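Homework help thread (please don't just give me the answer)

Our assignment gives two proteins as sequence + structure token strings and asks us to describe the second one. The first is just a warm-up. Here they are:
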Amino acid sequence: MARKVTLKNIIGYASVNFLGQGSQLLISAWLMYFYTTMCNLNAIEASLIFTMARLLDAVGNPVMGFITDNFLKTRLGRRFGRRKFFILLGIPTITIVFPLLWVSGQSFTYYFIMNLFYEVIFTMVIVSSSTLPAEMTQDAGDKAKLTGAKQYCGTIASTIAAFIPGRLFMMYGKDSPDAFLYTGVIYAVMMGISLVVVYLFTFERDQKDVHYESEIKSVWHILPRICADVASSMRVRTFRLHCVLMCIGGIFKNLTTGVFTYFVIFVLLQDPIVTSNISGITTFASSIALMLFIMSCYKYGGPTTYKISTVIVFVSLFGYYALTVNQPANMVVILTICAVANMVGRAGIDYVPVFQLAFMADVDEAITGQRREGLFTGVNSLLSKVATAIEAAVLGAGLQMFAFQPGVTVQPESAVFGITLITVGAPFILLSITWIACTRLKLTKERHKILVDEVNRLRAGGSMEDATEEAKVVFKELTGWEYKDCWGKSKKICHEVNEVRIAH
């Protein structure tokens, strides 16, 4: 008899987002700033650390998935669980390694290696824990509770993480490396405790019910599979446009988070405590905005919601620019309002691709006649991580290009201009690209219903000759292929699909 998912299990699973979301906010907002102002790394060196670590994470996800899937064949896997063993291993390692990211006075090589160690541990735990909803239950309602609780736990974790540095700046001084070190120590302990909760309060399915046999016989077959997946998925017009929204939007989101600390401290000349406080407020506001965007997506569709979010961001960017021209007496209040608006817009830009991803397999089925949900989920995750790597490279290269000086409290005018340009100008360019993609993306609930109804008709044995003109138009708009070439009729598409299946 299947075990019942209880409140204890929901809390246990949700707690992993102290690592998954809270730590990432700290790193995005403060770690590059710490390296370039207190560790004498130039912007290129700091960005290289993050770029390489995030690319490792992108490749490491499928590798780690393969390892955990097969770990039940080992004695440790049978003793501790094929997923939970790696969560258990993450408790001491994350508690030790995370503070080591925040030690000042070390070399580039030290920070590079420590960040690679951290990324390996992060990937190990996150990939293992992401499988737990499927391990614990097959009930859709229970899965929704688990993932929803995780989302809100992430908001709580991010809010706490955002406020911690500010409190320590007040205790040790805004220019004290100790404030950053103790931030790392405190949050590492919180993550360690949260992983103990995950380990104790979650469970895997009974080992006798696990039947797993992969066509991938070793990790060396994973890279060809990734390449085949990406090539095949890009044949779908809707998914290509979705990837523009997800990737470019992801670069914008992470770039905005990373440069905000520099903008507040070096351009607006505000205290780091102000940055910490504003980050905490905006993170909390994003959780409220998320509910509104969820409703908007269901009512108006993803592209329209994305445009609404973009307009909100544009308004906030005008506010940022106005603060650089005329610094008012109530600077902090106005800055907070602009930052909240920016975060609200980012919440929508972040959510729309999550909402749209569930529709991609339906569009693909119209082309191929097959269900390939896993392919689109995997490619989406891969490209999302690549986007975060690109963001780090863009921020580092931008700061270096405008002569940002490491280790100084007052930057030259060129660096101030460069930070302003990255904060205000770069988002306009990035989101203008996504606006064009939104205009071309025709995925609405009405078109989706027409497509699904036609696919169901064909699956039931209906003839393609009996299709309505409306269905043919919708197929072309969503798939990018003529109706006559869909439903597995195109030899070129079928060949690519078969290549992916062989790679799998």
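The one we have to describe:
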Amino acid sequence: MLTAFFAARHASDEEFVAPAGIATTRRSPIGFNPGDTVPFFSHSWITPRGHTPVAHCSVISALPSGDLLAVWYGGSREGAADVALFTARLPSASNSWTRPVKALDRAAAQDELDRRIKKIGNAVIFPDRTGSLWMVYVSVTVGGWSGAALNIKTSQDEGRTWSHSRRLTLNPFLNFGSLVRNRPIYANDGRIGLPVYHETALKFPQVLWLTPGPTGSVREYRMRSLPAETGLIQPALVPLDHDRVLMMLRDRSDGRRLHTAYSNDNGWTWSEAAPSGLPNSDSAIDALRLRDGRILLVYNDAASGRENLRLAVSDNNGRSWQPGAIIEAEVHEEFSYPYLLEDSRGRIHLTYTWHRQRIKHVEFNLAWLDRRAVAETASLR
């Protein structure tokens, strides 16, 4: 597995060591009740009707101001030359998303990177501890997604303006095959562990460790691969307690099961990934540790197709799952690429691709989540 063996080595050997600790979601103190006890659920649209023919792969991030920022790609079809990255904002004092703003298109990426760019794709956004907002996105110079490379932009004004793109060299042989989908974990020493995956020839998960420099710069970065886990991509990382991290993985094999792996050293080394008790239709998932310590999962509850989108909850670090609400279900349609966020009030936000045409946003609280979980469990008896 040459691509894993020759992963980027931009950090010194002395500093290339396991993190001493990972920031975890704090359990709520007794009496903590930011999301109220009355069940709450609402939905809204991030993309206006007809904004682009195709909209896909949304991500949201909480900002220091209290606003939420979403990013996704849209265009005539996935992989088309006219695909661009768009952002929209949900102000903290509003229930409506702002109109989409084009953050980057193929021509701008080509100019910033000073190389031919055929298309752009998946992007994630996340803050660092200095107040900078990061965007890591996929670009392709030749071929399909197996020819992808990763690039970084940063913002000092909560995503209103962005720096020029910087291309990461993650593989000295053509630098092909790296993609991104899910949120990072944060080491106590300041490093950011971004889950990525490789798609050239063999497909396998990786963690890209980034060391931020001043004002959104990248001081060092280095890749850690999971070379034994072929056929598993788009890792989602969930920090647990006591130096443990859970990894959940999309299954591209014929097995069609969500896989899980665990790290006991803050995401540095991993157990062998094992099938979970949940199906996976070769589709993206997301998982989030809630403030009460439970893990919330959103996934397509099917061995094939993306005709529904379902929640599940685990109170034992992902070893078993209680079925939760079905967010969407419609025959012959697609609901895919979900992304979760819990805000400072305890409200949970979920964005996802709706019919491949729009990006939808739903918001709910723990009271709604738990009521629906009880109802779903009762219906299965």
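TA reply:
I won't write it for you, but here's a hint about the kind of observation we're looking for: Residues 1-14 have pLDDT under 50 and may be disordered.
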